[in-house]
Structure formats: C-alpha cells, structure tokens
Protein 1
Amino acid sequence: MRLIYYHLTLDMKQQLDIPRGQEGAAWHYRAAAKRHPAHRHDELEVNLVIAGEADYLVDGRRYLLDRGSMLWLFPSQDHHLLREGRGFEMWIGVFQPRLVRRWAREPAQRPWRSRNPRGESLRRLQRSAAGRLERLFVDAAEAQRCHAATLANAALAHLMLAAWRAFAEALAPTAPATVHAAVRRAVDLLRGGGLRDDSLPALAAAVGLSPSRLSHLFREQTGITLTTYRNRQRIERFVQLTGSRPHRDMLSNALDAGFGSYAQFHRIFKQVMGRGPRAWAREAQREP
C-alpha cells in the first residue's frame, strides 16, 4: 500500500503528499512506531476506527476512539494521537478543498466549508453502517493503488458523501472531554521539545501546578501517565532526528532527543517500539 507522507512546517501545518491527479487519498492505518506530531492540514479528514482503542487530542478536546467511531477533522484543528492501544486500526480519508467545494452543495454539508465548525465531530456507527463504509474505503484505496486518478476521485467523492450521511444518521453523538489548560500546556511543551528540563517538577512549575496534581490530572484526562507520554515524545524526536541526520550516531540523536544515557534510551525505545533501535533502523532502511 502506498504510504502518505507529511511535510511539517514550523506552524505545525502539514503538506500531504497526495498521489498526482488525485483530489484526496484513503489509507489503512495500524498502531505504528512511526507517529506524527500534532498537526493540521488544508484537507478535510475523516477517520473510521475498525479495531482497538485510542485517545485523540483535537484543539484541547480529548476523544476516546473505539470500534465504530467516526471522527471528522477540519483544516484549522490541530490533532494528535495521544495513545494507541494494541491492535488499534482505522481507515483515514482526506479530501482536498476543491473536491469538498464541488460536493458541498446542500445545507447539511455546510460544515465542510468551515475550517473549524461548532458541534460534535465524533459519533459511533452501528456495525452494519461501519461495515458498508469500510468497503468504500477499500474501493478508494484500491483505485489509488492502481494509479487510476479518475476512478480514485470518483471513489473519494462517494466515500466523502457516504461518510457524512452515515455520521448524520448515527444515533448517539459522543461528547469530548475538555482537557484542563495546564494539561494541554504540558502536552504542548513536551511535544515541542524545547524544554531544557522536562522533568516532572520543572514541567509542573512551567504550567503552574504541583507535581502531584499535574501527574494525577494528566493521567486522568489523557488516559496515560505523563512519563509515558514524555517517553513517546522523546522517541518521536529521535525518529525525526534520525531521518534528518542519518549519518549521526544513535547516541548523539538519543541525547538530543532528551534521553540521559544510551541504556535509558535503549530500554524505553524497546518498550515503546517493541524492538531495539538497531533492529528498527534495519527495518526502516528496507522500507521503500
């Protein structure tokens, strides 16, 4: 399957590498070692969860995703997967503005034209509706693999319209939990990687809470411990540094990512990625 690559700019806006001639893309996503930082993009996006659980942070709101969840993401919304459970899988569809404009003709589709509409963005589909929609994702992805842009665009338009209809017909909207400002600030600081000291006491001082209060609140509102989240961000920075400066040794990249020693880096890397850093590097080199 063709991977969709992201090019990140300084303001967290990403340019999606969509196949030439297409007005969007669809792909299957599994919980993976390669994680993307918080980002936004000009494309309208829809996610359909088909297995497992995850937590999404969208503009300061935390969403719990599980099987059958459908989440819409709009161009001005920063979004970031906080946690992915084992076995998490979803389909992702992205639709370029010109495709959206062409089909957003009815009053019910007006939110498509907004960069950050009001109202809920997450609903849970019944199994039959989710199954029908999944088949449309498969069709769009298959057209994409065949490099048939005209067919892919028709499939993407069908997918977008059907997904919005399924969303509108879903019975029970799922309300997001509003994340405490200090927790959101802690997420931003850890994600940005600009802290000289990202220890719990330093982070708590930066957001104006006691260490114990921040630790408790972070786990309560994000579903993971602050230490776990910090370690994931360090691993993410290591992966990004390795991609941008592949000729530097692993220890240098690990230290620059925030780890205190190679032993600590190796232990945490294996916990997060499921294999050691050298095995991961060999696999990454073999990827097309």
Protein 2
Amino acid sequence: MLLVSIPYFKESVIFSAILAVNRITGTTAVMLFIRGLPLLLLLAVFSTSIHGSTRNLTLIYAAEMPLIDDPGGNYAQLATLLTQSREQQPTIFLFGGASLAPSLLSSLDRGAHIIDVLNSLEPDAMAVAKREFSFFEDELSLRSYEAAFPFILSNAVDPVTQNNIDGLKDHLIIEKNNVKVGVLVAIHEAVLDDFRLTRLQVDSSADLLYKRAEQLRNAGADIVVLMVSSEHPFVNQMLNDSAIDIVFRTDPHFDPSVALSTQYAPGYVFITQQSTAAVVSFKLPADTTESASFTVSQVPLKTLPEAPAIAEQVNTYTQRISALLNEKVAVLNTPMNTERYAVRTAENVFGSLVTDALRTASHSDIAIINGGTIRGERRYQAGHTLTREDIAAELPFRSHIKVLKVTGKQLIAALENGVSEIERVSGRFPHVSGMRFEVELTAPPGQRVKHVLVNGEPVEQTQVYTLATSDFTAGGGDGYESLKEAEEMLFSQQVTPLIADIVISVFKRQPLLEPPSTGRIVFSSNNGAGSNNE
C-alpha cells in the first residue's frame, strides 16, 4: 500500500507511484518518483496528519480485461472487491476499457458480453481505449447504448458531425459523499492507423484536455481524474500544473525497467500486471486549507474469491461458446508458440500455417498477415488436437480474406512497414507465404528489407503478383498503406469468408499438421529478434 499526501487539489502532489509485479517471483513492487528521483521499494508508506472532519471516498480502477473467465483474475473476483469496498465506504468504480476485444467471445458478439457483465458490476464510467475500436465506430456506439453506464472519450470527434461518437461523453462529474470527481479520457492518435479508422479525428495536443479539466474545476470538481491507455507526453505537465490530480493507466506489456529512465510526474498510477485493480482511498478535510491524503494499493484479482452471481453469469457465456466450438480440426505435428513476442518479432509456425492456408484457398502467388492478428497467447505441444475454439481464440477479430494485385514495389513497401517497429514488438510484423526476405535490423526503418524472393525468384518492382491478406491490412491497417493502393480481385466464393474459417477448412484437409517450411524471414543482424516457432 502507498499512502501519498497531496495539497488540496490546487498544488502539485509530492509523490507518484508505478505499481508493478515481478512476473517471476510474484513480488509486488512500488516504483516511486520523488520529484523525479526513482526509488524501488517493496513497501512504502507516506502520510500526513488530517485534522477535523473528513470526507472519505474510494476510487476503484481496473482495465485490460478482455477475457471474462481469465484464470489470472476475472470479473467475478472484481465484483467481490467492489462489494467489499461499497459496504465499507462511498466508492466510485472507473473501468479503464481496453476490453471489448480481443477474445473468443468478442469474435462472435463484438464485445456485447463484456457490457452485459459490466452492467452487473455497475461502473460509474468506462474509458474508451483503442481496443474499443476493434469492430469500428458503429459497433462501439451500439455497445455504449447497451451499457447502463457512460462511455467517456475526451479528445476525439467524428469528423462528419464534429461531435463525439454517438453515445459517448467527452467528460463527466460523479458525486459521492459530497465529493465531486471529474473524469476525462485521452486516446492516442495511433489508434487511427492501428484500426484504419475513417470516422475518428483525434486531438493529440494538450490544449483540449487542459480546457476540459478547467471546465470540470469550474463545475465544482474536487478531484480530476484522467484515464489513458498509452503514453502521452503532456500528462506529466498536466499533473505538475495541477490541471489534473491523478492519472490511471494499465499496460500489462510494460517493461518496469523502463521506469528507471523515465520521469513520471506525481499522481501517475500505473498498473503493469494483467487482471489487477487499483484502489485509491481519499481523505478530504473539511477545511480546504489543509492537506488531503490518499492511499494507493494494487489488488491482484486472482487473490479474491469469486462473487457467485457474476461467476454464474460468466459460466453461462463460456458453456455456450464451448458447446459451439468443441469441433476437432487437426493434430499438431510440431510445437507452436503464439505468445505476443513470438508472433510479433520473427517467423512463427502458426503465422506460416495461416498464410499458407490463405495462399492455398485463394490460389494466390503470396500471402501476408500481420502478427497482431494472432491473439491466443499460448504454447502448444506436438500432438495437441486443435479445435475450432483454438482457432477462433487465435484469430478473434473476424477478419475477412482479401486478394489484391500488388506490384513488387508495393510488396517491398508493405514488408518495410511490417519490420519497421520490431523493437517495439509491434503488431504490424509480417508473416508470409510464397516468399522469402532478409531483414537488416541495424538499418533504419524503411531500409531494412533485403533480397526479396517470390516463389524462388527475385522480386521485380513492376511485376504484378496476387496477394492474399486480411481486409484489415488491405485497408491500410497497422501502417500497410501501400496495400491500399493495390487493385482488389474478387474472391472465388460468392461470400467472402472469414480468415478463421479458411484456416479451419484448410487444416481439416490435412488432419496431421506438418511443420511449415522455414527460412521465410531471415535476420542478417540479430538484435533480439529471431526464431520464435517453439
């Protein structure tokens, strides 16, 4: 637990916390930044004395929970935390989003089950993060109308209407126990490229958020909270200027060692473990000239018992989906690793099997998918029987196949984009079929791809090749802008099938899946990338 003293929301707080969990030992670590000086402590307690009458308020924050039955911590356990807190003192529950996708269930209902479960947990507000756009703007709008709580997005508009996306609010004031809490949410402009959004305009400057924070203060907000899901350069300054009082962020893929070289401003609460909630307990003195204080603690949800009613609600969904997806597809004759790093930094067994399936089904020269399409985060042993559920979990986005006519120049540009952000473990990393190329990691992005061969022959800039890919990358998603310029060919079937269905169909023709050919992507300078097939 971290106890932090702050002046009464008008001056800078003194301490900030990054709450992290050592994935190997399970040790809870609190990273403190005291006026920019980092200290790593296993337990830290700070306090100030509070005189006279006080008002108590607890904020509970959780985010990044796309799996309703995650064994590492789930919604039924979050419900227990909420119930315990609500029984003890006034509580505001802020859900940080990043949960409507990806998951097996979301591939079928586009995140509606998450809203159903959250309705039972009764959030006071939900942040819109980039994953909420996985099924595009209209589906997000539909989810907002299904919710019994407001969706907040503060720095984006629909360029057609110049208003927020239908159903979303740009700010909110929540009042509990005579304390007014203003809520803002900022999204990063990278969402536009990541999800090829055409009906979203993001204001990436700080000016808009400063203005909205001032509006909240003028409306009587005692505390102003900002929820983010990415790094924003202006957040530190907003905290230092006391424009906002606290920032919530969750990123389970964050490397805690980066914090040693990063100066986070006071008030930055950053959770870096999946399925973990932040509990912030405020004490506000009646006399506003005195200091207020708050404690920050992180709670791994897996340590809590499940609330029976929510567990039953979740089980209803999981049992229904299991009954639909238990069909056996094929037996693996090789180990397979679909963990995040494995599919975003190097050639990969599953990535190769998928692209081979797309090329086979479309009779194309070559095929490409982006590594971010693969989401199972699993290790499979040789001999494992893949089911329809496994494939749907690995390919949850319900992407459709597209067949394009691309020139050699467009193909090389696509590959350059795919390997341009390997160091960031970006989802744009390409998995390929029918081609081979080398990557020079010491070269700058845009100049890394060497010696491209298509079906054994050197690529020619003006030669036209048929390329099978997803509708996501064909539309320029994940930075594949060169593919937007390519001519689309009609697929051979009347209804364009889902990539997951194509993969299942091709796999079933070869019930014992042999290892795919290797050597498709060769690193001529290995700076951390390499083979991740097992």
